[in-house]
Amino acid sequence: MSDTLTPQSQDFPKWYNEIVYKADLADQSPVRGCMIIKPYGYELWEAIKANLDRRFKATGHQNAYFPLFIPESFLKKEAEHVEGFAPELAVVTHGGGKELQEPYVVRPTSETVIGEAFSRWVQSHRDLPLLINQWANVVRWEMRTRPFLRTAEFLWQEGHTAHSSHEEAQEETMRMLDVYADFAINEAAIPVIQGRKSKMERFAGAENSYTIEAMMRDTKALQSGTSHNLGQNFAKAFEIDYTDENNERKFCWTTSWGVSTRMVGAVVMTHGDDKGLRLPPRIAPIQVVIVTIYKKDEQRTVVMETAERLASELREAGIRVHLDDRPNLSPGFKYNDWEMRGVPVRMEVGPKDVEKQSVAVARRDVPGKAGKQFLPQAGIVDVIKNLLVDIQASLLADATAFRDSHIKEVADDDYDAFGEAIQDGWALSWFCGSPECEKKVKDDFSAVSRCFPLDQPYPNETGHCIVCGTQAQEMAYFAKAY
């Protein structure tokens, strides 16, 4: 396999598939539609997981684990839910060499099995709110798969909560959407737009679905996290009820919300370039790589002493460091290798650097000579700390500028301009939200509504639906999407 990547401008899907494997994030699996997540890719997922988990616990949620197998009858209790997931289900009919009395569905999502548990755990208003999160794998039998973005099996977290009122459930739904947005923007450096899904795009069985939407470098949209107000649909299906302060039985109001390994794909496609990954320092498995340079064996000792000292100083400051002293590989090969892997900062140490008590430092977000500087070893820790902060901000600013330059607001009477905007990015226009209009946009432009943004451009005005011309209360983003 060549060390070079297909340019994004030439074939973005091919670029993406190549970078996933060349940057050592994943490997192919003998199981159709599945992937092997390699250590470097899994460390990236662990960073995402740790940052989210900390936020979940800060908002009062506890982690639990529920069965991988769900009785088929559970899914049938909520009609819209089973209809929405039926084409993607993997079903176990035999176990231990015998046909099962009732088939088990391999977990596509856990509203039903968790709902059954909630019906036993919740008895009184004193048991509410019940705030549970699960880190797990799920299976959805996808026909067209792509590593991290859409696979038959993937990793995720799914939060499930029960509340005593619709208002409290809605507050929870929006709180977790804010948590996702905070993570995406401040940790993954992905500028997401928060919004509400249309009726056609909302989660099966939900009253309302909310989303964080991100623009990839090919201008397609990626749904990067969702939060659902389930109303009382699942509570009634699974009898999740409680005795209130007046000793009356009432149904709970429930929510669910999730982020998956798709977020790894989002990081790749938001920041990557034709040389490889560009990882935000906050979630990069390695923040600084130190590459040693020497030609003679006698030079190695002094170079390694300096490199190991610098690595130790950086680690003591809480910086994630890797020292690359691989023999028989040229410095140029190592530079390209770490550029492919997207390490934010590369530090080079050679005999001249030892002599001058300096180091060469290259930042991954700025290409070529412009991103390289020679710095004194004294005080290098503080310099690197500040550099990592600057790189994090730079990646977010770059992604935001790219997104904003590819969003076009379209007048509500110019359907042709609406279609043209979608070909080059996202279109923002008035939309009535009907499934019929949504289907027409999909048929005409191979695009779908992404969301009604929570931050409406004209909150006190109305317009006319870009598709049918009827009065519309909100504007929506439309785009081609993954």
Short description:
Helix content is 36%, strand content 27%. By secondary structure, it is α+β, with helices and mostly antiparallel strands.
Rg from Cα: 25 Å
* DSSP helix fraction: 25-40%
* CATH class call of the largest domain: Alpha Beta
CATH topology type of the largest domain: BirA Bifunctional Protein, domain 2
Estimate the strand proportion. 25-35%
Helix count? 14
Number of domains: 3
Q: What spatial form do the alpha-carbon principal axes imply? A: globular
Name the CATH superfamily classification of the largest domain.
Bira Bifunctional Protein, Domain 2
The main sheet orders its strands as 3-7-8-14-11-10-9-22-25-21-20
The biggest beta sheet reads: 11 strands, mixed
CATH architecture field of the largest domain = 2-Layer Sandwich
Report how far apart the termini are: 26 Å
Give unreliable regions as ranges: none
* Overall pLDDT: 96
Number of strands: 25
Assign the structural class, choosing from mainly alpha, mainly beta, alpha/beta, alpha+beta, or little secondary structure.
alpha+beta
